């Protein structure tokens, strides 16, 4: 299980392939890649800056991964999140999950993203033509995370 | 008790402050928040309904009790991913 919080760009395809490497017991790999869009909430976005809480970020992601491992039989789980300046089209986040069978990998990947969105201390500040603005949290993200509680 | 209090993202910008050391007796994160709100002006931002907080780098509720040496953080809703 791996957590990486980095300013450097990454190659999602290489990350996905690396998850499967050296373990032929893996029957399923599910990957999620989140990208910077060039448009949000009615305004063009020229780029963004990702702030985080060093120390807590890694701790929060570790707790989310541990929770996923409790809920599903996983063989590998990797979370990679970028910080600092990002441009439209660049990957922000990668979650890769490997398991023997597909359902655990699909569900765990979904779960990790829902919890990351609502519990990991990252904040996006977008650069728009009208100036910089902080992205506000979405109610839909809260309800997406809530369904994993209701289902328990 | 001595607390290390940290502010992030929009709160950090609004307050013009990243962190501070506070001396005093605070029963909970909310007691600390009420103390900070008394500063007035920009500090009103800590009255926001959807404020999030952490104690020693774990998310917590406002009712979380505090102990000497704790690191407490206040921040707006997280927006990563």
Automatic annotation (TrEMBL), chain A:
Belongs to the MoaE family. The gene is moaE. Its EC number is 2.8.1.12. Heterotetramer of 2 MoaD subunits and 2 MoaE subunits. Also stable as homodimer. The enzyme changes between these two forms during catalysis. It catalyses: 2 [molybdopterin-synthase sulfur-carrier protein]-C-terminal-Gly-aminoethanethioate + cyclic pyranopterin phosphate + H2O = molybdopterin + 2 [molybdopterin-synthase sulfur-carrier protein]-C-terminal Gly-Gly + 2 H(+). It comes from Pseudomonas laurentiana. Keywords: Molybdenum cofactor biosynthesis, Transferase. It holds the Pfam family MoaE. One of its GO terms (molecular function) is molybdopterin synthase activity. This is Molybdopterin synthase catalytic subunit. SUPFAM superfamilies: Molybdopterin synthase subunit MoaE (SSF54690). It comes from the Bacteria. InterPro entries: MoaE_sf, Mopterin_biosynth_MoaE.
TrEMBL record, chain B:
The keyword Cell membrane does not apply. InterPro entries: Beta-grasp_dom_sf, MOCS2A, Mopterin_synth/thiamin_S_b, ThiS/MoaD-like. One of its GO terms (biological process) is Mo-molybdopterin cofactor biosynthetic process. SUPFAM superfamilies: MoaD/ThiS (SSF54285). Gene3D superfamilies: 3.10.20.30. The keyword Disulfide bond does not apply. GO terms for cellular component: molybdopterin adenylyltransferase complex. Keywords: Nucleotide-binding. One of its GO terms (molecular function) is nucleotide binding. Pfam families: ThiS (PF02597). Belongs to the MoaD family. PANTHER family: MOLYBDOPTERIN SYNTHASE SULFUR CARRIER SUBUNIT. This is Molybdopterin synthase sulfur carrier subunit. It comes from Pseudomonas laurentiana.
